[in-house]
Amino acid sequence: xxxxxxxxxxRDGDLDGLVRDFQGWVxxxxxxxxxxxxxxxxxxxxxxxxxxxxxxxxxxxxxxxxPRAIRDLDHAALxxxxxxxxLAARERMGEGLDETIAALSGGRSTAEPxxxxxxxxxxLRQE
Length: 127
What we know:
The protein is α+β, with helices and mostly antiparallel strands. It has 5 helices and 3 strands; from the N terminus they run ααβββααα. It has a 3-stranded antiparallel β-sheet with strand order 1-2-3. The two termini are 32 Å apart.
């Protein structure tokens, strides 16, 4: 059981242990974000003729346009296809971030209450 679990159950916990747990979580999260930032994610438009590649941080790295798209689409439709491809790549980035957060939280939902919230509230109320 983590030290946060002891606090959640209303027992006195080891504060130093809780800090160590927290530092471990921060380190794991930073490492996971670093790995995600190094990834290259590609998305394509609805026609499959335009592809966009972004970094894990969302930076656009490359756009590839099939010559048939240039021939068959007017400038507005081509612009929309590029936009769709970039959006698809960014959606993949978001999915990767969701997977990273789920893995780090042990599948715990972010909608669950924060187990330490009552303790933080008590500290903030003290003068």
